[in-house]
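hey so i finally got around to running the thing on that chain from the lab meeting. sorry it took forever, my laptop kept dying and i had to restart like 3 times. anyway pasting the input first so we r on the same page abt which one it is
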Amino acid sequence: MSIATVQRTRRQRFQPAPVRGNQADDRLGVADSELPLPARWRQLVLALLMVGLAARLVRYVLCFPLWEDECFLVYNLIDRSYLDLLKPLDYHQVCPVLFLWVEATAVRLFGFNEYALRLIPVLASIAGLFLFRHVAERLLRGWALVLAVGWFAVSYPMIRYTAEAKPYGTDLFLALVQIALIVEWRRRPLQARWLWGLAAMAPLAVGMSYPTVFLAGGVSLFVLFGLVKERSSGRVWAPWIFYNLVIAGSFLAVYFTAAKIQNSAELPYMQDFWHDEFPPLTHPLSLPWWLLKVHASDLLAFPFGGRNFASVLTLICCASAVAFLIRKRAWPILALGLVPLALHFCAAALHRYPYGGHSKLTMYLATMICLFAGIGTAALLARWTSRRGATAGAAKLAVAGLMVVAAGSMARDFWRPGKTQSDIRARDFARWFWINAEYNQEVACLKTDLNLEFAPKIYQDLNWTAMYLCNQAIYSPRHARREPLRLDRVAADHPLQCVEYRVPELEPKNSDARERWLDDMCQRYDLVGRETIPFVRYNKRETRVMTVDRLELYNFVPKGTARSTEPALTSRALQVR
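ok and heres what got predicted. didnt touch it at all, straight out
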């Protein structure tokens, strides 16, 4: 018997074979992936991929303004060195250090701007789109394959995190690469190279994605099922053992190098911030309702969904897939999807990682969610329709619905290229203000140029100073060129303007630090004017004012050079004014 015959025989034993004689199961297509994909399904898959690709590119090319969640993280990339990124991050951020280093490298190569900051996520998203198709074709056939690809291609979280400088998109891609490796090994159980590749990429995955440790549990159990079922030799067991050791060692290395430092600084804050996303173990009677609500809300918000049971459709489809896979005894696939979720729940029970709260926290599991959703949708359609033609018609209607979701996403992005109107206004102001302010005068930001903080809390707590500073780094010509402040250039015809961002509700009471600074400046310069520009922040629907910050502008000229029409003022006189 040839090696190829042995491999084919083992592969057929290990695959979840279709239930013969059950027409519904045959139509679902969880069957032999060696068979060629019929042309009609190839065309639908390709169309969904192109729609998904278009949605991702539109989101990236439109160049949305940085929103506050991005700004909180990327502010740390403006001036920090690689080693400084190992220290606790500003604005209560916790992020894998390798992702920070990759982002910092992109900034150094292409400058601090929206396109550079989002380059890695968009490349990961596009590569992940086609890699998912590869994985899905290895596992599924028929309408299950088409619907799974469609679910993945048009899901709003996948499209959104294409164009956000956050690690959630890379969480998804790295998880997908690991799943692709074990799926390839599943098809060729005698070839250990796929498992060695899995072990080789483990340090990168752990260093760039904290939730990788959850997925590693499912991956390890998936491979273990195959090793036991195939009665594999020690040559194949060795990479599995090595993978588990590398995962453990990488986790410890990342934890003691950076994660422990970040967690020690931010764990109490994060536990308070995500309080509602931890299971209520102290009230066990409320746990079943909590679990139902979490899984029908943000945790499974694919292709769309959200709070208050907005994701109940995805939950139903995934539950249908679980029931279908149990009937087929497809335990490896079930382990790959459910074990990471169980480990995620255990971490939440220990108040170390939120469970639910937002789909971004389960991006690492989006591959399995979409595979399950495709299987479950196909199973439900097969059950609800008794004839093959009726099943095909219902499935085509579902595919059309998915394409409408993607078209709606692109239309929305064109209509409003930003998360909120306040974000758009903040960037528009920065584009206008900095280039005009720096014309024929020296402009100094009290925070970035003079290192002055009259209210330090505004650079620690979550607020819109991060957006102001990030937009300054992008749209101030001098800051973008990384040029220092030139106080030697200050003259009567080239004045000095000092800029301070103020958050009134975070300023300490009875502080005279600002007045002392003004008195000191008035010893060296004539203060000829002061202006206040309000920064009004509305909620997402523009129906309520959330806060009103202020931009304070102080205008100085050298002593004795103030024009008669611009008399010099003291700091006390300015307070009166």
